[in-house]
Amino acid sequence: MKRLIILLTIISALLICAGACADPARTDGTVTAWIGEENKLFLKCTDGVTRTAPILVKDILCITETDAVALTQAEQIISVKKDGSNYSILSANATEEEIAGYTDGTVHMEGERLTVGDNVYSERAVIAATDGLMLYWINRGENGFVLMQKELPGKEQEAFGRSAISLTGRSVPEPLYLCVTEETLTLTAIDRSIVSYDLGTGEATYFPASGLLTTGACLTGGRLYRYNTTELLPWTLEEIQNDAMKLITVTPPPATPLPTYVPTATPVPTATPRPTATPRPEPTDDGNIYYGDRGTKVRKVQRRLADLGYPVGRVDGAYGEQTQIAINLFYDALNMRERNYLSLLAYRKLFAKDAPIYDQFLPLRKGNSGLSVLYMQIALRDIGLDPVKIDGVYGELTIQAVAAYQEIIGYIPGPKEEPGEYASRELLQQLYSLEPIPTPEPTVVPITPPPATPTDLG
Questions:
Q1: How large is the angle between the packed helices 371-382 and 321-334, nearest 10 degrees?
Q2: Angle 219-379-366 (CA atoms, 0-180°, nearest 5)?
Q3: CA distance linking residue 156 with residue 150, whole number of Å
Q4: Cβ atoms 268, 10 nearer than 8 A
Q5: Using CA atoms, how far apart are residues 217 and 203, in angstroms rounded to an integer?
Q6: Which of 11, 97, 248, 415 has its Cβ near the most Cβ atoms within 10 Å?
Q7: What is residue 412's DSSP assignment?
Q8: What angle do CA 212, 228, 437 make, to 5 degrees?
């Protein structure tokens, strides 16, 4: 019973967290915007071409009649034309009120009561998703969980060239997250497995869990994107599975019973209106500097990091996401565990005469973790040697990718060195200088950036 209570508490926290965020993918039934490769914004435009904006995003807020609206990792609200012609910055430093203003408020859940406007759709709903035309949700039944759907008031799918495929009544696993794109409805289950329903045929495709950190997924353009929630970002791209739709369509496993999953070491984000970082403790005189702090001491840290070459961004005295990235890189250089604060020990090392300067080519080895490993994984993937899990951990899959690269460049490991277990300075310098290997991927066209003076779309 105690394990069940713990599990239900964790599930509730994750569901509240997912509900408080926006989405890693959104659609209005004609175009789809999603967080794609390297956490950049991707948009399948009205002409059918997939385009990308060279901006790191953290949430997809909404899709209007003319634009897709997203929140960047720099806390800017950007608006991208649905035809991909350009994008504009709507807010250079978004507030909570501005972000909330772009949230669709027509669909509302309070407890298990699901309403659309004044209409009650369900009294037993546990999660819901909409593409602007159809509302999908999952009811809690006596014998498990059931998928439901209903057209939104005043919306007719036929007007958008779509026919309504009925998914109502299907038994599904207990949900963690539900996401709808223009092509599919994707359910992430509590056991981190994924079931995707083709909205054109109704066929279901099952994907087994790839880890214990996945908090959401979407399937679009033949690729399955898995995301997790971090202390700093509500959605971080965890893994991309190419050619996902080429897998054999199978019947998902029975919805019940599901294996009991009780996380141990994995931290669970708390339920906040919009997750940013682990809430800092009550003010103490412990000497640490925490995410969200402001003042002259933070400015002093930022200036010192900048002097050492770390990408701290603006020296403004505000401990935000870019400062956290620079601090994490500093922790990497010290070979210390990353934290969402600057410890007193790290602070002293930062201002020591022998403080390490930022070294993009710092050698890495098996067992390392952090942003430096993450950047290496991304570079390996970009040249066609996909380590599968872009998670910042130098594990077995990354070892295999590094070993393959060593073979390509003719690197011969030392007598006590196993292939792929050590990425030398020379190897990283060569890796980061290479152009990606051409692959038959779908053409992705860059979106034109805004002019020097951003134009409000109004």
A1: 100
A2: 100
A3: 11
A4: yes
A5: 17
A6: 11
A7: -
A8: 105
Residue ranges in 351-456 assigned as alpha helix (H): 371-382, 396-409, 425-433
Residue 257 makes CB contacts below 8 A (sequence gap 6+) with: none
Predicted TM-score of the model (pTM): 0.53
Cβ atoms of 298 and 317 closer than 8 Å: yes
Kindly give the confidence (pLDDT) of every residue in the chain, 458 residues in length, as a single tens digit, with 9 standing for 90 and above.
344 333 333 334 333 343 344 789 999 888 999 999 888 899 998 888 888 887 888 899 888 889 999 999 888 899 999 888 888 888 888 888 888 888 766 788 888 899 988 888 999 999 999 888 889 999 998 888 999 998 888 766 555 555 667 888 899 999 989 999 988 999 999 888 999 998 888 889 999 887 668 889 999 888 899 998 876 788 888 888 876 544 333 334 444 333 333 333 334 344 444 444 445 444 445 678 998 899 999 999 999 999 898 888 889 999 988 899 899 899 988 888 888 899 999 999 999 999 998 888 889 999 888 888 888 998 898 888 888 888 888 999 999 999 999 998 888 887 778 999 999 988 998 888 765 444 445 556 677 666 655 544 44
User: Cα–Cα distances in Å, from 256 out to 3, 140, 141, 244, 280?
Assistant: 18, 12, 12, 25, 39
What's the distance, CA 326 to chain centroid?
20
* d(C-alpha 224, C-alpha 378), whole Å: 17
**CA neighbours within 13 Å on the CB side: how many for 164?**
17
| CB 402, CB 380: distance < 8 Å | yes
DSSP per-residue codes, 259-301:
PP---SS-------SS--SPPPPSP--SS-EETT-BSHHHHHH
Q: How far is CA 167 from CA 123, 137, 153, in A?
A: 19, 10, 18
Buried b (16+ CB within 10 A) or exposed e, 382-419: bbebbbbbbbbbbbebbbbbbbbbbeeeebeeeeeeee
Closest by Cα among 203, 201, 206 to 189: 206
How many Å apart are CA 131 and CA 220, to the nearest integer? 14
CA distance 444 to 395: 30
Calpha distance 333→327 (Å, rounded): 10
CA atoms lying within 13 Å on the CB side of residue 444: 14
CA distances to 113, 134, 140, 409 from 124, rounded to whole Å, are 6, 18, 6, 58
The pair of structure tokens assigned to 214 is 């996945």
- Which H/E stretch holds residue 8? helix 2-20
Within 181-251, strands assigned E span: 184-189, 194-198, 204-207, 214-220, 223-228, 236-241
Q: What is the Cα–Cα distance from 319 to 312, expressed in whole angstroms?
A: 10
